[in-house]
Every structure is written in C-alpha cells, then in structure tokens.
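Hi P.,

Sorry for the delay on this. The queue was packed all week, but I finally got your sequence through. Input first:
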Amino acid sequence: NLRKRADKNGYFKLAKELGMTVSVWVHELEDYDPSWGPISIENDVLWGKMTERYAAIFDTLLPEIDYLVLTVVETQIKMSDAELLLKLVLTILDQCRKSGKKLIFRSFVWHPAELDYVSETISRLPDDVIIMTKCVPQDWHLRSIDDALIGRVGKKDQIAEVDIAGEYFRM
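Then the structure:
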C-alpha cells in the first residue's frame, strides 16, 4: 500500500522539511471497471467514479502532494477524442482545485495524429492547468526535431521534459 510505504519511509515528511514540492504521476484511464458502462461523455457513472477516485487520492491516500501529473498514454484505455479527453482533464482538475492541488497535463503521445486531439484539448483548458511537454516529439530520440508544442500552449505554464540520462542511449 502506497500510504503505508510513504509513512514508513517518510518521503512526504522529508520533502516538506526540505521545502520541496511533491508530484505524483497518474495514468488514465486505468483500472477501468466495465460495469461502469461505456466510455463516453454521457456516462455519469464513469465520471462519478473518476471524481471519487481523485477525492480519495487527495483527501485520504496522498493529501501531502502538491502536483498531480496526468499522462494519457501508456494506459489501459487510451483517450482518442478531444471531447472525451477534455472531460477527463476537467473532471480531475475540479478535484485538484477543491483540494488545493495543481494539475500538470502531459502532452506526450505516440503517434502524430494523436497530437491533433491533444493540441485541441490543451487549447480549451483553463490557464491554471500546467502543460508538460517532452523536448522531442517521441521517446527521447536525441537527434529528433523539437516538439511542436514547445511554446505553443497559450498562457498556460509549460514544463519541458529533458532526458539527461539517455534512457535509450546508455549515456
């Protein structure tokens, strides 16, 4: 259990003592129960479960965190539609705001066509959502072009991810 491990090892306490902020990454949609019904904007059961999930994370499981980093790739179920993705991000953002947390949305995608719906979603998000973008469009290809979203997220704060360890290059 993450809560027990965090308490035992004192991670959150130490971070706060050092004046650090704490970020936790989440992947959605994960742990989706088919009994919740279809994945759609109209599915109130799904969005109720998402609301419950993040209320529990912020209120009980990890109240010490400052930032929630949302990634929508490398997940059980991929969001492949701008409207559905917007609904997901806004649902989680609502819980972040209620709990005094900041939401960071990762723009990473695997395929160029996915960048279109992610870009559309970002353009429609409120300015208090922070955007995290890899410096390259794919997974750490050091000789790649710059990611097209760098500097193109409106008035939102943006974090650029940089791989200094050479994940695929044994540096």
